[in-house]
TrEMBL record, chain A:
InterPro entries: AAA+_ATPase, ABC_AA/LPS_Transport, ABC_transporter-like_ATP-bd, BCA_ABC_TP_C, P-loop_NTPase. PANTHER family: CONSERVED COMPONENT OF ABC TRANSPORTER FOR NATURAL AMINO ACIDS-RELATED (PTHR45772), HIGH-AFFINITY BRANCHED-CHAIN AMINO ACID TRANSPORT ATP-BINDING PROTEIN LIVG (PTHR45772:SF11). GO terms for biological process: D-alanine transmembrane transport; L-alanine transport; L-isoleucine import across plasma membrane; L-valine import across plasma membrane. PROSITE patterns: ABC_TRANSPORTER_2 (PS50893). SUPFAM superfamilies: P-loop containing nucleoside triphosphate hydrolases (SSF52540). GO terms for molecular function: ATP binding; ATP hydrolysis activity; L-isoleucine transmembrane transporter activity; L-phenylalanine transmembrane transporter activity; L-valine transmembrane transporter activity. One of its GO terms (cellular component) is plasma membrane. Belongs to the ABC transporter superfamily. Keywords: Amino-acid transport, ATP-binding, Nucleotide-binding, Transport. This is Amino acid/amide ABC transporter ATP-binding protein 1 (HAAT family).
From TrEMBL, chain B:
GO terms for molecular function: branched-chain amino acid transmembrane transporter activity. Keywords: Cell membrane, Membrane, Transmembrane, Transmembrane helix. It is a multi-pass membrane protein. This is Amino acid/amide ABC transporter membrane protein 2 (HAAT family). It comes from Breoghania corrubedonensis. Pfam families: BPD_transp_2, DUF3382. The lineage of its organism: Bacteria, Pseudomonadati, Pseudomonadota, Alphaproteobacteria, Hyphomicrobiales. Coiled coil: none annotated.
From TrEMBL, chain C:
It comes from Breoghania corrubedonensis. The keyword Cell membrane applies. It is a multi-pass membrane protein. This is Amino acid/amide ABC transporter membrane protein 1 (HAAT family). It comes from the Bacteria.
């Protein structure tokens, strides 16, 4: 039942995020199991994106503790780290609800930017690069190979040299995932990756996520509104409403949780108990 | 039927031109028509209604003709196109004014500038009529050219582009070779005395190209709007001047030091302000530019204040001076002494410096740091999510740009032999920025074209004196309205899996910083 | 103390002038998000128009007081109207064709316009300084008697009172205009979302033009005040005054009208106090450094809305 508590890759404890008077996330705790696909769901405005923003350092949480444990045993306290270090050192990568690609750069360039840090050290602060030393050229070739690998996985090899802004929406979504994967993450946070995709693209996305879980040492957390996607691929579902966790468990357990149903149907708090009674809890 | 159309067009044109004339009247009747002159007992007004009348008539007639013959309803024009035409016609009028002033003035002793001063009505009217006609012809031709180009469709445009592609590849090389050959061509053609003025101009243009390339890193690649770039130019110039004054160091010794010092200043100034976004960054950099200038102006004991620093040493060729002495350049190489040798040498120095700037920039663009600069311009938040330290990346862009500014500054100092804070005013920053933006952000060749057009054109109109700044300003407006993304606006990818085709400007972001 | 008071009075006067110019920057920035670099030169044009009228009408301090005030008022109105036409024209020619285009393009045309205006005035009016005799002299002596006992004399001149009063009245009127009228509403709508505003029937082009017109009118007021206060102008005054006023707008929080006024006052005070107590030469350095420091710690300015970084 609580498999994810045994070997969590990410632990969130008492996370609270306030914006002035608004409590977007309220004393939230959960674990993300290593190697799992975990879905974070909830109605609009529940605070899902805010949780991601706290985890990836874009917001500094008002309170709480966020820990990442790598499979190597290293652990990082995310709330103390600036955003770029979270990606670079703690290896938490993410995508955005409104796609943020480098639109004027080619698909390949997007993937090369994602490998900035290893390439930067290979270019010895650019000096080796300026003089075109072999070490840098080898590193660059490896980076291109790595990018090609992901291009192949998302089926965009043919479009590698086109500007990212030129791609259709579904391809942009997948490219953003590939770009995040190019950083070699331990945790991959996807914010509504299936939004706006047609059923075929959605199925492709599922396959991609399953592949990532199977072949890479990467645990996936995704925010998703499409229940069929959630139910199909996730091992673990966490439900948020008004910044609080209202359910946490396997997809099947969550699906039949009356609180979840109530939250999605938009029933007021007092009525939740009523609904619960009706369902027989 | 067609009579009706043309009649209604005449009416509409008449109304439109009338409004334009009225606005011109409101704009000009005081500023042009009533000139305040210092006379005994304070200011007095010198009335020049003729000039106002002419201005209004010109605008009316010009607009009327444009309405009737250029802005035809059957070829609908965008606002942009209209504005460009308007600007072009003003420019054409000014050019004609100038040409007549210069050539007819010399031949027949007739000068419109003098004519305006003495209110010589007839003359002015005649001239302006001429100017208007020429302007109309020019714009009509332009309109015609566009109309003819239009029906060829996208296929033709693409094939033209494809035909031009190899040109794009060879153009930089051709330009480079031309640049190397310039002194010899000039001397061959004009003799050493006649070519001096043009070589000086070429040196000036190259200095601005180098400055443009330096600023291009900051604004074009990293998308950080820097309105105080001249500060680094000043730091470079003063570093060299002061180092040579206090420690007797020579140009080649000081050149790297000046660059390093400018880069350090870039980092010191950049560190606190680079967190600011967009226009805040612009205003703070502008402020820093002014601060540095004011300090140079007022720290009399150290910098000489408004008197500046003179006697800055000239560059040597591996220790060989360009003087009349026995161990001077001419004597050692068995040549007749001529001051042009030094000018040619300076030309090659700045050419080499500019080419190095270009080489380094092109290389940096293909390195991770350069790609991070461009990514920063595209989307800073995405950069941070990919583990890029944006502060350091911005600082590196700022410092690299500053360093090239510093190099250019120390060259400026050694070329002039004298510097003062006057050379480092805001207008200088504005001109460099204009070169970068007009050329097309991020485009190296665009900077070259813009610098040649702006600086070369500006110097070409040297005799025009007061008019040329006016033309310069108008030109900035017109080019921008005509091509808001600059002259060369396609972005070349830094790496390609199979090919590298240009990316059109509408996709490229301009950055928020 | 007396010295302090005197500097305070001078600083508030100068700050009022900066504030009036700053409003033009802040409004334009608020509505179309661009630095209207030519605004300082619009102020200069306003000042020149006032100067030409003062000279042409032969206005002198010798006139009867009521007549003098009436004439100055007339000059003010005409200058405001004509300067507005300039503001409108600049917007129409250099900014409107670039609406919705790339962000740096209007900045460059603005710099181009600034150069054009400066050189146009230099050509048409000459490059020399233009001095006028003081028109309004005298004032109250607040402290220190007639100065015969060697103590410091604190003066509050009529002119300073005039400047401060006119500025205050304009500010209040202006704030009401923005807050109460449909024009103000249209402006705020365009600020929020230009496309949406045009969809619900706001005439966006007209609203933006009017914003430029209002900014230019206030700049003309500042131009007349500047002429009266300093008694000498030239074609170059627009640059420094413009940079200071823009600094003021940023300091106060760009986009905010009270912010522009507050920023103007602060810049005026910083400048006068720095000149009064430290050194005149470095007064600009002081003003700019304080701007930089404030922005570093308070990036949205004093009264600006904090910018939320939506991820
Ligand atoms: N930077 C911010 N400043 C103020 N309020 C914010 C900020 N970011 C988020 N909020 C508020 O926090 C609440 C939660 O927002 P969040 O974006 O996390 O919701 P969400 O669950 O991702 O919703 P959706 O499904 O619509 O994406 C909302 O009320 C939102 O307005
Ligand atoms: Mg969300």
């Amino acid at each position: 039942m609580t498999r994810w508590k045994e070997n969590p890759v990410l632990t969130v404890e008492h996370l609270t995020m306030r914006f002035g008077g608004l409590v977007a996330v309220d004393d939230l705790s959960f674990d993300i199991g290593r190697g799992d696909i975990t879905a974070l769901i909830g109605p609009n405005g529940a605070g899902k994106t805010t949780v991601f923003n706290c985890v990836t350092g874009f917001y500094k949480p008002t309170e709480g503790r966020l820990t990442v444990r790598h499979s190597s045993g290293d652990s990082y306290l995310l709330e103390r780290m600036p955003d770029f270090e979270i990606s670079r050192d703690a290896r938490v990568a993410r995508t955005f609800q409104n796609i943020r690609l480098f639109g004027g750069m080619t698909v390949l360039e997007n993937l090369m930017v994602a490998q900035h840090n290893p390439l930067m050290s290979a270019s010895a602060m650019s000096f080796a690069g300026i003089f075109g030393l072999g070490r840098f050229r080898r590193a660059e070739r490896r980076a291109v190979e790595h990018a090609s690998y992901w291009l192949d996985k998302i089926d965009l090899v043919e479009r590698a040299d086109d500007p990212a802004a030129d791609l259709p929406y579904g391809d942009q979504r997948r490219l953003e995932i590939a770009r995040a994967m190019c950083t070699g993450p331990q945790v991959l946070c996807l914010d509504e990756p299936a939004a706006g995709l047609n059923p075929r693209e959605s199925a492709e996305l599922n396959a991609l996520l399953m592949y990532i879980r199977k072949e890479h040492d990467t645990s996936v957390v995704l925010i998703e509104h499409d229940m069929s996607v959630v139910m199909e691929i996730s091992d673990h579902v966490i439900v948020l409403d008004y910044g609080e966790k209202i359910a946490d468990g396997t997809p099947d357990a969550v699906k039949s949780d009356p609180k979840v149903i109530a939250a999605y149907l938009g029933v007021a708090d007092e009525e939740v108990e009523l609904v619960e009674e009706e369902v027989g809890l | 039927m067609s009579d009706l159309v043309s009649e209604s067009r005449l009416k509409a044109s008449f109304k439109d031109s009338g409004i334009a004339a009225l606005i011109t009247l409101a704009l000009s009747f005081m500023l042009i028509g009533m000139r305040t002159e210092i006379s005994i007992g304070g200011l007095a007004v010198d009335y020049r209604w003729a000039a106002v009348a002419i201005t209004v008539v010109v605008v009316f007639a010009g607009r009327m003709l444009l309405n009737m013959y250029v802005w035809r309803p059957e070829t609908p024009r965008t606002v942009t196109f209209r504005t460009v035409l308007l600007g072009l016609s003003i420019l054409a009028a000014l050019v004609i004014f100038y040409l007549v002033d210069r050539f007819l003035g010399a031949v027949a002793g007739l000068s419109p500038a003098r004519a305006i001063e003495s209110n010589d009505w007839l003359w002015i009217l005649l001239l302006l009529a001429l100017a208007v006609v020429a302007a109309i012809v020019a714009t009509a031709l332009l309109g015609l050219a566009e109309k003819r180009a239009a029906p060829t469709g996208p296929g033709a445009a693409a094939s033209i582009k494809a035909g031009l592609a190899p040109l794009g590849k060879w153009l930089p090389l051709a330009l480079g070779l031309l640049a190397v050959a310039v002194p010899f061509i000039l001397i061959e053609w004009l003799g050493s005395r006649g070519s001096r003025q043009y070589l000086d101009l070429a040196i000036l243009v190259l200095t601005y190209i180098m400055l443009g390339w330096g600023l291009n890193i900051v604004v074009g690649l990293a998308g950080l709007l820097d309105l105080g770039y001249v500060a680094f130019y000043a730091v470079g110039a003063y570093s060299f001047a002061l180092l040579s004054q206090y420690f007797g160091l020579g140009f080649w010794m000081c050149l790297p030091l000046a660059g390093i010092l400018a880069a350090c200043w870039g980092m010191i100034l950049g560190y606190p302000v680079l967190r600011l976004r967009g226009d805040y960054l612009a205003i703070v950099t502008l402020a820093f530019g002014e601060i540095i200038r004011v300090i140079l102006l007022n720290w009399y004991d150290f910098t000489g204040g408004p008197d500046g620093i003179s006697g800055i040493p000239r560059p040597t060729l591996f220790g060989i001076e360009f003087d009349r002495g026995d161990d001077g350049f001419a004597a050692l190489f068995g040549l007749q002494y001529s001051s042009i040798h030094r000018i040619i040498f300076l030309y090659y120095v700045i050419l080499a410096m500019a080419l190095v700037t270009n080489f380094v920039t092109m290389r940096l663009r293909r390195l991770p740091v350069g790609r991070a600069w461009e990514a920063l311009r595209e989307d800073e938040i995405a950069c941070r999510s990919l583990g890029i330290n944006t502060t350091n990346t911005k600082l590196s862009a700022f410092a690299t740009g500053a360093m090239f500014g510093g190099f250019a500054g120390s060259f400026f100092a050694t070329r002039q032999g004298f510097i003062s804070p006057e050379s480092f005013t805001f207008i200088e920053s504005a001109v460099i920025l204009a070169i970068v933006v007009l050329g097309g952000l991020g485009s190296q060749i665009g900077v070259v074209i813009a610098a040649v057009v702006m600086i070369g054109g500006f110097e070409f109109f040297r005799d025009l004196q007061e008019y040329r700044m006016l033309v310069f300003g108008l030109l900035m407006v017109i080019i921008m309205v005509w091509k808001p993304r600059g002259l060369i606006s396609t972005r070349k990818p830094t790496i390609g899996l199979k090919r590298r085709t240009g990316i059109s400007a509408d996709m490229v972001q301009e950055g928020q910083g | 103390m007396d010295y302090f008071l005197q500097q305070l009075i001078n600083g508030v006067t100068l700050g009022s002038i900066y504030g009036l110019i700053a409003i033009g920057y802040t409004m334009v920035y608020g509505i179309i998000g661009m630095i209207n670099f030519a605004h300082g030169d619009i102020f200069m044009v306003g000042s020149f128009l006032a100067l030409i009228m003062v000279v042409a009408f032969g206005v002198t301090a010798a006139m009867p007081l009521t007549l003098l005030i009436l004439v100055l008022l007339g000059i003010l109105v005409v200058a405001m109207v004509l300067t507005s036409v300039w503001g409108w024209t600049v917007e129409r020619l250099a900014y409107r064709p670039l609406r919705g285009s790339f962000r740096l393009a209007p900045l460059i045309t603005a710099i181009g316009m600034s150069i054009t205006l400066q050189n146009f005035v230099q050509l048409s009016q000459g490059a020399r300084n233009k001095p006028v005799q003081p028109l309004i002299s005298g004032g109250f002596t607040l402290m220190g008697g007639d100065g015969s006992d060697g103590s410091f004399v604190v003066q509050l001149s009529y002119l300073q009172i005039l400047i401060i009063v006119v500025t205050t009245v304009l500010m209040i009127g202006f704030t009401m205009l923005i807050n109460k009228t449909s024009l103000g509403r249209a402006q705020r709508a365009c600020e929020q979302d230009r496309k949406m505003a045009s969809l619900i029937g706001v005439n966006v082009d007209r609203t933006i033009s009017l914003t430029f017109v209002m900014g230019a009118a206030l700049a003309a007021v500042a131009g007349l005040m500047f002429l009266l206060y300093y008694g000498v102008i030239d074609f170059y005054i627009g640059f420094l005054a413009g940079v200071k006023a823009f600094t003021a707008a940023v300091l106060g929080g760009i986009g905010s009208l009270p912010g522009a006024m507050l920023g103007g006052l602060l810049i005026g005070l910083i400048e006068t106090f720095w000149s009064g107590y430290f050194s005149v030469e470095y007064k600009d350095v002081a003003a700019f450094s304080i701007l930089a420091i404030v922005l570093i710690f308070l990036p949205e300015g004093l009264l600006g809305k904090p910018e939320v970084e939506k991820v």
